[in-house]
Amino acid sequence: MTPFLDVSGVSFSYHTMEGETKALSHISFTVENGEFIAVVGPSGCGKSTLLTLLCGLAEPEEGTVLLNGLPVSQDHSRIGYMFQRDCLLEWRSVLSNVSLGLEIQRRLTPEAKKELLSMLETYGLGDFVNSRPSELSGGMRQRAALIRTLALKPDLLLLDEPFSALDYQTRLSVCDDISSILRASKKTAILVTHDLSEAISAADRVLVLSSRPGRLKAEIPLSFSGETRPIHRRNMPEFSSYFNLVWKELKSDDKHNS
Ligand code: ADP
Ligand code: MG
Known about the structure:
By secondary structure, the protein is of the alpha/beta class.
């Protein structure tokens, strides 16, 4: 059967006035529908570059990225992208921020608006529909950014260090909230993070990249006896074994760790 996402032998370099920077080298992996994958690796190893290749914003110089068996540019799946910064617009209310994508695509029907209001309610933002982003906490802002992304009903969600601007405590609870939301909506998601604990607490499988140029060093499937809540996983005995395993993979044969 054709995998949902098939990354095969992908390499990529940046070419600038200063010369060539090899960012990724011969990356191959597949992702099934509904899987939650985390990608970890030292900073600058090419994690964000990988996401830009997965959504077709850049083309690999070698290898292929196939979605449902087709090159990303030809497949009609919708891809959602969430960044470290929430990019909420201060002059718009929370509701008009989360509806921005639909508005641009002229898909903001009364039904879509009703659905957004119910999502805001479900995710604890019901009392802030008419507030400005500055009135929200960091965690609430990130949840609003997620709702804005989910509003477009993506088939694949790419998350580039979405929690790293938050303080530690908030990060734990937002990561918990957001992964529950993603799992409840059965989204296929790829979470890039440099935080090993975050990766292990949230994902079904962790991909470990080497330092630049990023190579795939290991794929570690996670099994927590069916437990998917990050907060609970962190207290399970498997957690520290996986942490040591991922840590060892990250450090192996790596001359310049960061
Ligand atoms: P990560 O997200 O893992 O921190 P990136 O994918 O952002 O890493 O970057 C990988 C490497 O490519 C880094 O060395 C970075 O400096 C370089 N790089 C990223 N974007 C560009 C660009 N637009 N032009 C030139 N080099 C870049
Ligand atoms: Mg990055």
